[in-house]
Structures are given as C-alpha cells and as structure tokens.
Specification:
By secondary structure, the protein is an alpha/beta fold. It has five helices and five strands, in the order βαβαβαβαβα.
Length: 120
C-alpha cells in the first residue's frame, strides 16, 4: 500500500481518483490547490502525487516543477492527471519533471498500471 497525494480543485475528480486508489489499497491525502498540495507533499512525504493542471492560482505544471526542484520532494514521482490532451501539454508536463501523464477521464487500469511502474 502506498500513500498518494491527490492535488485537484474538482471535488468530483478527487472523489473518482480517491475511490480508485482506496479500492486498490492505497492511502490518499487531498489538497484543493497547488500551494496547499506542495505544503502537504513536503509534510507528508507520500510515495507519489497525482497533479491536476488547471487550478486557481499556481497551475499543476508550476507545482510539478516546484516539487522537482526542491531536494525535500524531488524523489517523489508526480503523475499529471488533466483534461489537457494535446501532445504539447504532455511534452511540457514531462519537461517539468512529471513521471507520467494521464488524460481525464482516467481509466482505473491505466492509473494502477502507471502507479505500479513509478512506485517500484
């Protein structure tokens, strides 16, 4: 079982992701925006982060870059989970340090497969 932080401003998306993760035995913590998420990741030191892109204030690309630059959190894999499905968005997300990129709506098998890869 891994500890996963979900950073997303949509209660519906949080519910969907949290349900999938908990059904597969993971512990979930939630942050409603990037700033709150960065603070939570620093404090909780989770096994992985699921990061939305479009949020008020700092966006997920900026937050991913911030987590990857910080020595306290750079070892924690960030998976971007977003509605932004353009190839340029994916490339940009990976350049910010994301380990993978999922487009919403997320399929449970895809999410668990990616988590299986980044957690080992």
């Amino acid at each position: 079982m891994a500890h996963i932080v979900v950073i997303d401003d949509s209660p519906t998306e949080v519910y969907v992701l949290q349900t999938m993760l908990e059904r597969n035995g993971h512990q979930v913590s939630v942050a409603k925006n990037a700033e709150e998420g960065i603070a939570l990741v620093k404090q909780a030191q989770p096994n992985a982060v699921l990061m939305d892109v479009v949020m008020p204030g700092m966006n997920g690309f900026q937050a991913t870059r911030e987590l990857n630059k910080n020595p306290e959190t750079s070892h924690i894999p960030v998976i971007i989970v977003t509605t932004k499905d353009q190839q340029t968005d994916k490339i940009w997300g990976m350049r910010q340090g994301a380990k993978d990129y999922l487009v919403k709506p997320v399929k449970e098998a895809d999410l668990m497969g990616i988590l299986g890869t980044v957690l080992h």
